[in-house]
Amino acid sequence: MARVLPSSLTPHICILPSQDLEELLQSSALPSLHHILQSFSPLPQVTTRTTALTTVPHTSFALRFSNLTEIEAACREDEEQRATRTIDWIGDRISKRCAKWVDDFEKMNDRDVARTPWWDELRRCAEGDHIPARDEGWNHPMSIILAVSTTAPNPLQAITALHSRTLDFPSWVDVTHLIYTLIIHPKNSPLSDEEAGALFNAVKKQYGLHTHLLSLELPFPPPPPVSIPALVPRLPPPTIINGSADAVRPDLKTTQTVPLNTLRMSEQDIQQTARFAREFVTMNLVPWMEKYVIEWNETYSSCRRLPSRLFSSTRRLFGTSPATPVHTSTPSLSARSSTYTAPQSSVSGSTIPPPSQQRRLAEFATILGDFKLAVAVWESLRKEGKGGSDILPLLIAPSPAVQLHVSHALNTIHPQSPELPSHAQLRALLYAVRWESTLTIGDFLSDTLEGERWLVWAAGNAEEPPAALLLAHAALLSVRKNSRRRAALWYFFAANRLEKCGIKPLTMYFLRRAHELSISRPDKLLSPSFWMSENKQPSDFEGFDAVMSGIEHPLGRLLYTTGDVSGAVRHFLGLLRWSSASSSPLARLSSHTADITKDPSSSDKVFLEDFQVAISHLKSISGEQARLEDVKLPLRFVVLSQTCVRLARDSVEGEQSEWDTREEIWSSFWKRRGKEKLERSGNAAVEEAFWVDITLRNPLDTEVTLAKPTLIVESSSGDAAWIQDNITIETAEDTILYANESRTISIAIKASKPASLTITGVAYDFLGLLPTVESLARRGRRLQDTPQQRQTIAYAPNELLKLDVEEASQELAVAFVDDGPLVLAEGECKRMKLWMSNAGSRDIGDVWVVPGPEDQIWIEPLDSGKGPATGIEWKTWHSDNKIDPPTPYSIPLVEKLVTAGSTEVTVVLHAGRKRKQNLSLLFIYREGQGSPFHCTRVTRSYEVIQCLQISTASQPSHSPDHSFSLSLDLSNISSSSNVEINQVTTISATWSCSPLAELWSEPLRPSQSARISFGANPTGDYACVNAVSAFVSRKLSNVLHGQAIAPDDPPPLELLCGHVSQTFAYEPFVTHFIMNARRIAVSHSLAQSHPRIPTSSHSSIFPLYNPLSVDFVIFWKIPSEQRSGHILVSEITLGASHAALREVIDGVESAKIKRSMYAETQREKVEMLQAIRDSEWNAEMNPVVVIVKDGLVIEHDFSQGVCIAPVEFTIHNHSLSHPSHFVLRLDHHQQSSSRHLPTPYCGRTTFRGHLEPLQTSSVLAQLCATRPGTYALSGWRLEVEVGKPNTEGGSWQIRHRYEQRAAVDDLSSIIVSDLSRP
User: Fold this and answer.
1) Where is this region: Disordered (predicted)?
2) Model pLDDT, residue 694
3) φ and ψ of 919, to 5 deg
4) pLDDT band for position 789 (50/70/90)?
C-alpha cells in the first residue's frame, strides 16, 4: 500500500471552460468547474502499477484542479514578488483569525496533544500553492481538461476553438500533459440525448478517446446545499492598477469569493460527477502516466546499464563518450495523440528549459507509488545536484541519513546572506509542511529523525509569520517529547518574531506557553540530600531563571499595550527577581530592549522604567485606590544578618569580633579575682533613643529609591493605639541606592514607658510608588534534638529583633573631650582627656578600661603632678621575662560617681605602627563590691604617620676593646619637620653597649640621616643564657612530642640599660610602654613564625626577652609641632649560638613515626618542626672570627736583602659557653683578591690553638717580601671544631665543624716600600 502523499505532491489538473459552460454553472448556483471537481478529491481505492507491473493500491488518490487562465496569468508574475505576496497573505489570514483561535484553544484541556488551528491554516495555505515553479515540476499541469456544454449554439465549434487555443505558458513550463475533452449535457440543453451522443462520438473520433460526456440534471430552482470538504485557500491574484499588476502587496480590501463548504447539486448529479472523476483518473490519467513512466524509465536505464568504469575506459581508449539523452518539451507522438504539443508563447523571451525528463520521471513514479524507482531516480538527481533531498525523507525508511537529506535540502535553498529572500522562505515552508504531514508522528519525533528540529531549520532567521509558526509548532512537538526547556525557547523565538509582525494575540499566547514551560520543574528524581546540602525545599523551584526575564518582559509590554495595565505591573515587578547577575540571555534578543542588546547590565534599568510607567498609569486611571495589596516586591533590600539594635551607649564603629576579644580579656582577668559576671543585657532606657541599624543592599544594576523607610513595631504592653501614643518611631529620609551598593541606615526609636518591643519589619515605598513591608524574621535554627527531627527537616520558630525598655538604673557615659581628627607620628605619646559621667540612677564605684591586644595606653594616676624621674636612676630593669596577656586598667576615682556626677581622666596613647586604626576602649563599671558589672564602649579613629626611618646592623668588632660593633641609622623622612633625637637607650640582659661617639646636638632636618655606633661587650653573667635556653628547649620538646604544656614561667632577667642622651627627663609611663611594645613585637613574631602553636600557650613556652638580644629605644621630639615620643627597635641578636634544639629535633625525627589517618595532621607536624628548626632558639653560627691587622706600611732597603715583616692574625671565640679548637693555614694561592701581590710567607704557615669561651689568641706569621709592593693578606683558611662545654675530667667532644676563608671582597693588605729608591 502506497504512502499517502501531501496534496502539494498530487497531479495538477487545469480546466479551460467555455463561456457557455460558465454561464450554465452560474445560472445553476454552482461554483466554477474546478471548484466542483475539487470537491470530489481525493478518490478512494485507486490502483496503479509500477514499471515491474506490480499493482500498488492507494487508499486515497488526490487531485488538484485549477483554472487554466489563472495559472497562465500567475506564471507571468515574478516568483520573488509572488512569494512576498504569499507570505503577506498568510500573515494577514492568521492575524485576522488568531484572536478567536486563541480563545477557543485555551479552553481545551489537552492543548499539548491537539493540533493547533494556526498550524493547520499555515499547512493548508502552503499546500494551496498551485502555481508552477522553475525548480520543480509538481505544480506543472499534468492534464488540461477542455470543458464545454451542449447549451452552446454550436458545441462542436466551441470544442474546436478550445483545442486550437495556444497555451500562454513560459518556456520553463513542461507541456507534457494529457488533453482531455469534457462535454457537459444538462437536462435543459437544446440538444437531445441522441444529438449529444452524436456530438460525443464526433469529438472522440476527431480528438481521441480522452473524451467524456457528463449528463447532469441541474434542476431549477437548485436543490438544497450539500456539505463538501473545505477547499484549500489559494493566493488571490494581484490587484490590477492601470493595466499592471501591483506585485508588491495584495489588495487586502478586495476579498476573493470563496465558496462555502456546500454544493447545491442533486444526488444524481453528484453520483454522475463522482463517476466521471473516477473514470478520468483510472481510465485516462493513471494509464497515461504509467505509459510515460515506462518510456522515460527505458531512457533513464539505458544510460546507466553499463558501469561507469567501462565508459571511462571507452573514452580513454577510443576517444568517445556515451550519449546523454536529452528530454525535449515536445514529445514525438502523432497529431492525434492525447499529448498536447501545440506551440507556446514566451512572455519574456527567456529560454529557460522545463524540468528534465529524469525529474518528471521521479515525480510521476512518486505519484504512482513506484517508490523503488522513485528513490533511485531521486538519489541520482541528488548526486548530480539537481534536487531530490526534499522528497527522499518522505520515501525512505527512518535513519540518520534522513537528517542529512533534510539539512542538504534546506542548505540548498538558504543563501548565505543574513536575510532570507521570500521565495526561499516559501520553499522552506513547503518542505517543512510536506515532511510534517507525511511522516507519522512517531517517526517524525523519534530520536533518530528529531523532526521538530527540521521545522526550526526551515524557519531559519526569517522574521515573517510563517517562520514564527514553524518555531511554534516545533515547540509544540518538543512538549510532546517532554523537552520543555527547548520548547520554551522556541515559543519565545516564535513570539519575538510574531511581535515584530504585529500579531499580538498569538504573541501573548506563545509567551504565556513559554512562561508555563519555564516554571515547570523537570521530572528528575533528586536525592533528599541534595535539597539539604543546598538548603532549599523541593517546592522552592521558581523556574528556569536563565530565560524567565526574557519571556516576562515582552509579555508585560504586550499586556500594557493591550490595556491590561494591572497585569503589566505585576509582570514588570516580577522581573526584578532576576537581577542582571543572572539575567536571561533571551533579554538581549528582545527587539524592544535595544539598550539591553548593547549593555545587558542595563536590563534592570529597563525593567524599573517600565514598572514606573505602568504603575503611574495605573494610579492615574484608578486613583490612589488602585488595588495593589496583592502586588509584592519579589526581592529584598534588607540584609537580615547585618540588621541589629544599637543602644546609645554602644559604639557605632568597631567590629563585633574586636569587642568580643576585649570581653574575653576582661573575663580572663576577673576570673582569678571574683565571681561577678559582666551583664550583657542590651536593654534600652526609658526616654532614651536607641537605633535599629538596617543594612540595605541593592541587588539590581541600577539606581533605586526607597522612600520614607520606617519600622514596624509590636509590643506586648499594648495594641497599635498604645504604641502610637508611647513609642516614637523615626521615619528616615529617602534612601537612594546606586547599582549593587550596600548602605546602612539607622532608624531611631524612643519609648516613654517601659515595654517589651518586637521589631517585625521595615516599611518603605519602593520608588515612591509601591508600599512595601519587608519582614525582619530570621529562620530559626535547624532542630536535631530528636531522631524524628534528624530525619525530617525542622526548624525552630522564626527569630525577631526583640528589646526590653526599662527604667535607667546604672549607666556610664564616656566620651573623648576632643573628638576631632587625630594624626600621630610613629612612637608619639599623646595625652587625651576622657569625660565620664553617671547617666543612671545608681552610684558607680569601680571603673576599669579594657584596650585591645595591640593598644598601648596608660592611665595617669591622681597624683600625676609629681615631676618626672631623671635618667640617672634608670640603670637596670628586673623583668619576669613573661609574655603577659593584655590586662585591664583600673581608673582611679576620688569618690563614687553619684547620679549625674562626672569626672575627667587622662589617658596617654602610644602610637604604634604606621596605619589607620581605631582606639576601641571597653569600659567596665559597677556600683561596688559584689555588684554585677556593666559595660560601655567608646571609639576614636586616628592615623599614624612615619617620621623616622630606622635600621640597625651588627658585626664582630675589629677592635680588641669590643666584641661586636653596632650601628643605628636614623633618617628623617618627614616633609617639613625637624626631629630632635634626645636619647638612645640600649637594653640587653647579656650585652653591655657603650657609644663610640657622643649624641649629636643638632636636629635631623627633612631627608637628613645620621648614624650612631656602639661597642658591645658581654657582661659576664652567662647563667641566664643557659637557663632560658634550657627552658625553651624543654617546652618545645613537649610541644613536638605532643605533651601537655605546664603553665610555669620562664627564668627572670636583669636587663642592663645604656644611655646616650642630652639633657632628658623620663616620663613615668616610658617603662610601661617599652615593655608593652616588646610584648606586641614578640607576639607578632611568634604568630608569624609558629602558626601551628596555639597563641594561648605562647606565654608558657617562649620568654619575653632572648638573653642575647639587644633593643634600642630612640627618644625623639618635634618642637615645632609639640610632639614627642619613643620608638622601640628589637631586631639584633648578638653572640654565637650552637643549635640548642638540635638534640630535641633529632630525637623527634629519629623516633618511631606514628601514622595518622589524616594527611593534614602530618603536614601540620612537619610544618611545626620546620618552624622550630628555623627559629632563633635553634640558631647556629661559627663562633671563631679571624681579624687580620692590615694597613701597615713597612720601609725596607731591598739592597740589603729581602724584607722579613711580621703579620698578626687575631682569632677570637665569640661563644659564651663553648670552647673551640682551630687550625689556621696560610697559603698565598688561596688569596681572594687579584688586585695585590700574593703574600709570600716564610717559616711556619700552620697554626693550631685552643680557645675558651670569649677567649682571644694572636698568631704571628712571617712575610718574606722580595720586592716592594702591596701584598694581600687574604690568603688564609681557618678550620674550627666547636666542642661541648667543659666538664671535669671529660674528653673532648666535637659539636660542630666549620671552615672559613677570607671574604671575596676582603681588601686587607700590607705595604712594603723600598728605601733604596729615591
Assistant:
1) 321-357
2) 92
3) -95, 100
4) confident
Task: Give which of 300, 274, 163, 133 is closest to 214, Cα–Cα.
Answer: 274
* H helices present in 1151-1260, as ranges: 1159-1173
Sheet holding 1256-1265, edge to edge: 1184-1188, 1203-1213, 1256-1265, 1241-1242
- Which residues fall within 8 angstroms of residue 1245, CB to CB, at 6 or more apart? 1225, 1226, 1227, 1261
Residue 477, all three cell numbers: 512537538
Q: Against a cut of 0.85, is the pTM above it?
A: no
> Which residues make Cβ contacts (< 8 Å) with residue 779, sequence separation at least 6?
795, 798, 799
Q: Closest Cα partner for 1015 from 1057, 971, 954, 969?
A: 954
Count of other CB atoms within 10 angstroms of residue 54: 11
What are 1194's three cell numbers? 713597612
- Residue 751 Cα to chain centre, angstroms: 47
Q: 1001 is written with which cell numbers?
A: 646636638
The alpha carbon dihedral of 137, 138, 139, 141 has a sign of: positive
The x, y and z cell numbers of residue 849, run together, are 578600661
The answer for residues whose C-beta is within 8 angstroms of residue 11's C-beta and 6 or more apart is 63, 64, 142, 143, 285, 289, 367
| C-alpha span between 1250 and 1211 (Å, rounded) | 10
Closest to 1049 measured CA to CA, from 1014, 1100, 1007: 1100
The CA distances from residue 1317 to 1267, 1309, 1314, in Å, are 12, 22, 6
Give the mean pLDDT of 1294-1298. Answer: 90
Distance from CA of residue 1156 to its chain's centroid? 40
Q: Which one-letter amino acid corresponds to residue 823?
A: V
- Which of 712, 710, 645, 631 is CA-nearest to residue 681? 645
Determine contact, residues 22/67, Cβ cutoff 8 Å: no
DSSP letter (8 states) at residue 797? P
The pLDDT, as a whole number, for residue 1045 is: 87
Report residue 797 CA to chain centroid gap: 35
Q: Which residue has the higher pLDDT, 1082 or 527?
A: 1082
Alpha-carbon torsion (370, 372, 373, 377), positive or negative: positive
- Whole-Å CA distances, 9 to 64, 139, 502, 1068: 9, 8, 33, 112
Task: Measure the CA dihedral 723/725/729/733, to 10°.
Answer: 130
Residue 859 CA to its chain's centroid (Å):
54
Please state, in angstroms and rounded to a whole number, the distance separating the CA atoms of residues 1092 and 1086: 10
The pLDDT of residue 1317 is 73
Report d(CA 89, CA 475) in Å as an integer: 24
The half-sphere exposure of 807 on its side-chain side, counting CA atoms within 13 A, is 3
Taken in order 988, 992, 993, 998, the sign of the CA dihedral is positive
Mean residue pLDDT across the chain: 84
- What does the alpha-carbon distance between residue 58 and residue 49 come to, in Å, rounded to a whole number? 11
| Cα–Cα distance measured from residue 718 to residue 754, given in angstroms and rounded to the nearest whole number | 11
Look up cell 698568631; give the residue.
Answer: 1259
How far is it, in rounded angstroms, from Cα 158 to Cα 148? 7
Pick from 1076, 1097, 1071: nearest CA to 1086: 1097
pLDDT tens digits, 825-878: 999 999 999 999 988 788 899 999 999 989 999 998 887 655 554 444 567 888
- Whole-angstrom Cα distance, residue 315 to residue 305? 17
Secondary element (H or E) of residue 1040: helix 1023-1040
pLDDT the model gives residue 63: 94
Question: Residues 168-227: pLDDT tens digits?
Answer: 899 899 989 999 999 999 988 888 889 999 999 999 999 989 999 999 988 888 888 888
* d(C-alpha 45, C-alpha 55), whole Å: 12
Can you tell me the distance from the alpha carbon of 84 to that of 422, in angstroms, rounded to the nearest whole number? 5
How far does CA 532 lie from the centroid of its chain? 24
Whole-number pLDDT of residue 582 = 42
Lowest mean pLDDT, pick from 240-254, 855-869, 1021-1035, 1235-1249 = 240-254
